[in-house]
Request: fold
Amino acid sequence: MEPRPRSFYVLTAFFILFLVFLYGPTLTIGILSFQGPGGGLTFPMRGVSLHWFRDLFEQQAVGDIWGSFSRSLTLGLMVMVTTVVVSVMGGLAFRKRFAGATLLFYLIITSLVIPSILVSLGVGLIWSQSGLPVHWSTSGFGAQLTWTLPFGLLIMFAVFNRFDRSYEEAARDLGASPWQVIRHVVLPIIAPSLIGVALFGFTLSYDEFARTLLTSGSYNTLPLEIFGMTTNVTTPVLFALGTLTTVFSLIIILVFLLVVWLLNHRRARQGSNAGQGMV
Reply:
């Protein structure tokens, strides 16, 4: 067995340092959240306990943790569903050239390069100047869509660029209507990509801060609530909240990955059954 070149060890060390830099802060917060009742916000730790996690479920003197969490969860689901539906519709529309398609594409992408705080300010001004109430479920919802929709559309553009249209042609030859082609052919094939778009939409919305800052109105989402708590909370309860929200995000990702695995497994089993039937 030939010895590995020196570059391999250099790149491995660089990759390890990158992982430490990427996940080190999260791990540090996770460790400090298990401080004892007399613990503070820094090392060294003063005991080990679940005290601050229990404290999260008690009445807080400052902050509306669970109210903001429910708002972020609801808003994330709203953004997720809208992003999936509009992205699929946009992907289907862009399969055929139409007048203004190029201009529309660049307008969609432009929202990704505009500073988020300016988008938040602009949406908030539009709502307030129009006499509409600035609220997380209306103006906040619209501001977050300017962030999630471009990602969803880009994914759908890539998916449909590689989509084999012979499947649709075969379905139409068998007498399927346009809606049946989409429902029974297109959507099942692109289902894993749709789950990816849904995951993007939910996680980007759930963690979004800047575009929600000036559009949420009187009620904070969870990122805004956490930011507000950093100015007046001086106990590891803030770290415990960060740990729980990180675990929640990981659970959401695992659920989506499980759904993708189940869909792929089901498709493989159906393909195997179809092959056996032909034999």
Remarks:
- The mean pLDDT is 87.
- The CA atoms of residues 125 and 131 lie 10 Å apart.
